[in-house]
Amino acid sequence: MSNEADTATPAGESAPEPEGAPHGLGVSLPHADARAKTEGTFPYAADLWAEGLLWAAVLRSPHAHARIVSIDTRHAREMPGVRAVITHEDVPGTPRHGRGTPDRPVFASEVVRHHGEPIAAVAADHPDTARMAAAAIIVEYEILDPVTDPEQAFEAEPLHPDGNLIRHIPLRHGDAEAVGEVVVEGLYRIGRQDPAPIGAEAGLAVPRPDGGVELYLASTDPHHDRDTAAACFALSPDRVKIVVTGVPGATADREDQGFQLPLGLLALRTGCPVKLTASREESFLGHVHRHPTLLRYRHHADAEGRLVKVEAQILLDAGAYADTSADALAAAVSFACGPYVVPNAFIEGWAVRTNNPPSGHVRGEGAMQVCAAYEAQMDKLARKLGADPAELRLRNALATGDVLPIGQTVTCPAPVAELLQAVRDFPLPTLPKDTPEEDWLLPGGPEGAGEPGAVRRGVGYGLGMVHMLGAEGADEVSTATVKVHDGMATVLCAAVETGQGFTTLARQIVQETLGVEEVRVAPVDTDQPPSGPGCRGRHTWVSGGAVERAAKMVRTQLLQPLAHKFGMSTELLQINDGKITSYDGVLSTTVTEALDGKELWATAQCRPHPTEPLDAAGQGDAFVGLAFCAIRAVVDVDIELGSVRVVELAVAQDVGRVLNPAQLAARIEAGVTQGVGIALTENLRTPRGLIRHPDLTGYALPTALDAPDIRIVKLVEERDVVAPFGAKSVSAVPVVTAPAAIASAVRAATGRPVNRLPIRPQAAVVTTR
Fold first, then answer.
1. From CA 758, how far away is CA 769, in angstroms rounded?
2. How confident is the model at residue 575 (pLDDT cuts 50, 70, 90)?
3. Most buried one in 58, 68, 174, 544, CB count within 10 A?
4. Distance from C-alpha of 248 to C-alpha of 220, rounded to nearest angstrom
5. How many Cβ atoms sit within 10 Å of the Cβ of residue 322?
6. What SS3 state is found at 59?
7. For 531-567, what is the HEC assignment?
8. Regarding predicted confidence, which is higher, 702 or 54?
9. What is the CA radius of gyration of the chain?
10. Contact between residue 674 and residue 363 where contact means Cβ atoms under 8 Å apart
11. How many Cα atoms are found within 13 Å in the side-chain-facing hemisphere of 320?
């Protein structure tokens, strides 16, 4: 296999940094691949090519729910240039796959359960030929009524052999008879968000001489994908290899396995390399989305505004297949009360199958939906009590040592009140001048607003929380190897760089520990030990911890001969800026001299403390760690047109420890901007289960012009003692919190309830009579 961009740094491999540049933890070391990406030479899967390449296309269902009467592939097979056509009959191994629950067929056989479900795949000598051959496959359908309302799924006929109910969690905490002096209720709806990766899915499958296959993919969990592919192909895992290419953005499970598996099957069938590059429409149809959610809440509080009891019903629309919906539901139910002290909580949560597009892991899943609802309830409670919304939140703020509604004690730093006070006390932005030059500052931009007198400013707050790593007994483990030779260190770890900056962090860890300036992070493939998926801050914690342990083992190997020679322990030696010195100054040498041409290496694992599943009452120590965020939103709303402009978002976050200041700030800003899209524009509409406008013209992502001023006003560096380096995940919690804060600000500006995300214009219109 070769790549058109011959001079590019291989995906996942870091380029050397300029000699003498600052390095180590706490330094804003730039991304190793930044230059290649900005110059357009970074190798993504869509850039790959191999000798004898064939092109693939997938036929997808145009219906949300239908029975397959027959599939006729004769015309496609007879087309010149077509090398293979496969259907469910050509899957030699396990015909099902799925990230969490393997309940999704590789190809639909008897029934299609969602719009875009794969029916067949074609390999041909030209991409146009492959697409025309796929279109020539004749499928006779008996169209069935789709079940698209998750509330109807409870009574509907089973859509899947496993039934319509994926999981039910009844959380019971405290006294069911407890009541408050003040009660507020609300019904909330959260729309379907698409992860909208910057690059659509693409991949290359290359058959091997031993009858196996190599898949070149932007996988974020390569070992899981390898094992699934091996089972589907009826091969042993050692005959399937996944090589991770450049990942063009990942805020979810990046690669749809329903895309990977036909690719490998075609390569095995034809004996030729096969490439598949999805269109943007296919990308929308194929990968998972954020769970649309229906939430009913009732909050009880005393006369001072202290929470007494929270009751809630949470219904997640999983779409046609389960995927990671059980995990999303656990997060939603566990965090249904938010970062507040709630002595009594009774939550019912369900995840159900429908004929809507599949839902799955998207950054902050479960936690984002409930945050929008419980913060709306806090606004309602403040309004009913005549209290300041920020002050009401402070009265109820969670702290270290408090108990979550799942019965787990918060042992990690939880500076919720400190974060809220920081954003509350930060100076508010100035009001725009009422001049023509400032029209662009009004909602809708120039000529987009009505009269300036119709614009109202609102200030709102959001407090959010997420869990880090897997939950409910997930075995979180990662392995890393560090080698040092000839003054250069190499890190081998199967943690995928998805844009979160792991390769940069790995370099900084080794530089800090070993004093070696030049550090190379090797490309990722499944020949390396597994490191798990790239989500929930896993790789900063687990993979970074494995790299640190391996580097410390190499450090010991490096220092032991010197310590023995001078009759001291290795703890009395330190490494700084490539120099080894003793506490008393007797020993002073360089790392290069100490290595003396030797190659040192070590392999280590990191496995956090175990967790446990939620029990029948929704109780259990389910989470390894938690992260918190506070955001104050300032918005301008045209109350006649309902248009909203986010003026400023002030963010305070507990990060444990800042490992790379510039990288951390970029991650927070990106998460906040994604939250703006959830709040105002992003809604994948699916009337009768059919995705309407599956493209980036019909699906409105926020652009640079939509991004508000983002002020990171405080980063609380209170280290989590059980986390390597004490650092916390930073990307997901601002995504969770920003939509709730923006909705709160719109409520403050308009006095309207704003009970749906994204916020529709009619929800922000104030009728005056």
1. 27
2. confident
3. 544
4. 11
5. 25
6. strand
7. CCCCCCCHHHHHHHHHHHHHHHHHHHHHHHHHHHHCC
8. 54
9. 27
10. yes
11. 27
- SS3 per-residue string spanning 160-191: CCCCCEEEEEEEEECCCCCCCCEEEEEEEEEC
If you average pLDDT over residues 328-340, what whole number do you get?
Answer: 97
Q: And the tokens for 384?
A: 């009913």
- Signed CA dihedral, 247, 251, 255, 259: sign only: negative
Residue pair 160/353 in contact (Cβ under 8 Å)? The answer is yes
The band of 423, judged by pLDDT with boundaries at 50, 70 and 90, is very high
What is the layout of strands, in order, in the sheet containing 644-654?
Answer: 455-471, 623-638, 644-654, 709-716
Contact yes or no for 66/142 (Cβ under 8 A): yes
Sign of CA dihedral 281, 283, 287, 288: negative
What is the rounded CA–CA span in Å between residue 753 and residue 759? 11
Return d(Cα 117, Cα 107) in angstroms, integer.
8
Quick: pLDDT tens for 154-188.
999 999 999 999 999 999 999 999 999 999 999 99
Q: What is the pLDDT of residue 271?
A: 96
Strand-pairing partners, residue 158, are: none
The DSSP H or E segment spanning 400 is: none
User: How does DSSP assign 611-679, residue by residue?
Assistant: -----TTS-S--EEEEEEEEEEEEEEEETTT--EEEEEEEEEEE-SS-S-HHHHHHHHHHHHHHHHHHH
Across the range 573-587, mean pLDDT stands at 78
Query: Per the structure block, which two tokens stand in for 768?
Result: 């005056």
Q: Where are the alpha helices (DSSP H) in 86-239?
A: 127-136, 222-233
Token reading at 218 = 């932007």
Beta-bridge partners for 71:
139
End-to-end CA distance of the chain: 71
pLDDT digits (tens, 9 = 90+) for 124-158: 999 999 999 999 999 999 999 999 999 999 999 99
Distance between CA atoms of residues 731 and 739, nearest Å: 14
Taking the complete model, does pTM exceed 0.85, yes or no? Answer: yes
511 or 755, greater pLDDT:
755
350: helix, strand or coil: strand
For residue 600, give the H/E element and its range: strand 600-606
Q: Is the pLDDT of residue 77 over 70?
A: yes
pLDDT at 769: 44
* Strand, coil or helix: 37: helix
17-64 per-position pLDDT tens digit: 545 555 677 787 777 777 887 888 888 888 899 999 999 999 999 999
CA distance linking residue 349 with residue 352, whole number of Å: 10
* In the predicted structure, residue 445 carries a pLDDT above the cut 70: no
Distance CA 672, CA 663 (A): 14
Could you report the per-residue pLDDT of 551-574, keeping only the tens digit for each?
999 989 888 888 777 777 788 788
Residues 6+ apart with CB under 8 A from 79: 124, 129, 132, 133, 136
Alpha-carbon gap, residue 66 to 490, rounded angstroms: 53
Query: What is the b/e burial string over 610-626, where b = at least 16 CB atoms within 10 angstroms of the residue's CB?
Result: ebeebeeebbbbbbbbb
- Nearest Cα neighbor of 312 from 432, 186, 416 is 186
